[in-house]
Amino acid sequence: MSSASKSPWLLHYNASSCNGCDIEILAALTPVYDVERFGIINTGNPAHADIFVVTGGVNEQNKAVLKNIYDQIPEPKVVVAVGICASSGGVFRECYNISGGVDTIIPVDVYVPGCSVRPEALIEGIVKALGVLEEKRAAMEAKK
Amino acid sequence: MDIMFIVGAVLFLILAPILGGLLTGCDRVLTARFQSRVGPPLLQPFYDVAKLWHKEKAFSNPVEIIFTTAYLVLIAFSGAMLATGGNLLFVFFSLALAHTFLILAAYSANAPYAHIGAERELLSVMILEPILILFAAGCFLVTGSFDTYHMLIQDVPGIIYLPGVFIVFIAVLTLKLRKSPFDISTSHHAHQELVKGVTSSLSGRSLAKVEIAHWYEMMIFLSMILLFFAGYPVLSAVAIILVFLLEIVIDNIFPRVTWKMTVKSLWIVTLVFGVGNIVVLGILGGIV
């Protein structure tokens, strides 16, 4: 395990979520679940982030915002789609203004389904993302 | 210059970031325990910096490489000056110059949060500089010299003559360690008002350099406590540990204040205790 997966800093973006998953994300970041055990910090700043946590099905209004934030995160980075809307569009999939999941705009590495997700599932998803982060870091090193 | 001084400077340059990182780790674990959490591993600050060092090189403005490097080098240089028993005024001025480079790094990015952070950092340098000079003046009144070396070879520890200045120093330390309530320009707490303020546009190695510089600065200010307890190593160590614990407690129980409150509260403490202390010393004719 390298330093990449020992210090994952999170960035959370709500791409037209109903706030159900967002509340669960905030719950997972409270002292009760203590994600700082894994070195996880909620940064709120793309320049500092490693793991991009996105909720919601992404509508026409925030497509560009989502892409912009993604581009601002330096490599290696991992995208976690949280909730069924972010994973596939959920019940909103057929809506005229919904893209139908985060992976229609940016590449997604880990899907955490649920409506809304449980904090335990979310933490497991993040820990899974650490493995992906590790692989990406190794690929980056090999490229050098 | 004595060979001991050179050894002291080299030791400081090597040991300060290690001790600074470990202290930051202790801080994070203790803060977690305050909130009934387990908290991160003790070595977490080192993992963070190692990770940042291996991140992709992404700059909002490439000139930040020069500014952040200058910040780190100047802070390390100030620390080395202090460790060699150098001139206290010189140390303070080179620290102020270091912070100017950090402010320039923040201004070089075209980002509003970085700019507000830079403005507040500038403000904190401006609040702090006269207070630090007051501290140096106190040392001068006691020893007749601005050299920290003379403060260290005193028979009577400085705290006897400068108790008020010591109280001011603790208040200053809160701002210098970027602890609440004076963490107005940036802070180590997750998600805050300014999204990390002065460092918000820095990433990867630039941010790692700022972090290492912060460890150096932390050690510079904590080791200045030695000046108050010179000649009593055990007492000095106890004082440093107690002051550091006090800072963590203060950090955990006070919310951040506005910049106006920062100016007012720091200067009220300074005028009452610091200036009072210096005036009394002056009336008594100084020690020398």
UniProtKB/TrEMBL annotation, chain A:
List each copy of the NADH:ubiquinone oxidoreductase-like 20kDa subunit domain by range: 18-128
Taxonomically, the superkingdom here is Archaea
Task: State the Gene Ontology terms under molecular function.
Answer: 4 iron, 4 sulfur cluster binding; metal ion binding
Q: Which cofactor does it need?
A: [4Fe-4S] cluster
Keyword terms: 4Fe-4S, Iron, Iron-sulfur, Metal-binding
One Pfam family named in its UniProt record: Oxidored_q6
| Record bears the keyword Iron | yes
Could you confirm whether the keyword Iron appears in this record? yes
Family (UniProt): Belongs to the complex I 20 kDa subunit family.
- Identification of the protein by name: NADH:ubiquinone oxidoreductase
Q: Which organism is it from?
A: Methanocorpusculum parvum
